[in-house]
Amino acid sequence: MTEEMKILDKLLSDIHSGRYDANDKLPSENELADQFKVPRMTVRKVYERLQEMGYIYSQQGKGSYVKDRQMQIPLVLSGNESFTKKMLGLGYPFRSKNIFCEEIDYHQGIYHSLSVEETDRVFKIGRLRLVNDRPIALHVSYVAKSVFDDIDSYGKKITSMFEYYQKNGFTEFASKSSLLKVIFPTKFEWEILECPCLIPLLVLETGCIDQKTGTVLEHTEIFYRSDCFNFVI
């Protein structure tokens, strides 16, 4: 293990064990350099890595401090209630922002999930979810024009897919089988979610079905900032 990794491991252990509370000041770069007998630049790289991982924040000329990671939103991962309704039900100042609606090229997995033919047109609609104007999740829904004929013209107005489905006569929803995976964000994802590049994202890939008719309404990919949620499965 390199000296940099030893220092990183020690600080992570101290933070996880509760030695430092939220907003506590961490030792200075000089103090840690003397303690571990390493150049100050080594400690600086450790602090840069901890900041990228979302554990600390720095104040110019004052030092590095532990970030509050306890203010996390409890989220039940289910598809029978809209994300908007979940957030408002928990009392959070929530809003949803439509950021794109665009047609996609043929994708075997998505088309199969939607149960549509290769000749069908499929659109993806992206909504950015914000609490206190802070981006916390990106929802991308794939829907077929054969099911929603106005999706190409109306898609950019949608902030809640469930409301859109209800307007089209679908009122009882059920989730398809879901896939959970953890990824590190791409440049697009960490820029749009305004998160450090080493904070993992929890990605939920699922679908929504109308219970009355069995119609597949959407294929969904939801990118959650892992530092913003406690997940209830």
UniProtKB/TrEMBL annotation:
HTH gntR-type domain ranges (all copies): 1-69
Superkingdom of source: Bacteria
Classification via Pfam families: GntR, UTRA
Matches recorded under PROSITE patterns: HTH_GNTR
Cross-referenced InterPro entries: Bact_HTH_transcr_reg, Chorismate_lyase_/UTRA_dom_sf, Tscrpt_reg_HTH_GntR, UTRA, WH-like_DNA-bd_sf, WH_DNA-bd_sf
Keyword annotations from UniProtKB, A to Z: DNA-binding, Transcription, Transcription regulation
Stated name of the protein: GntR family transcriptional regulator
Originating organism: Aeribacillus alveayuensis
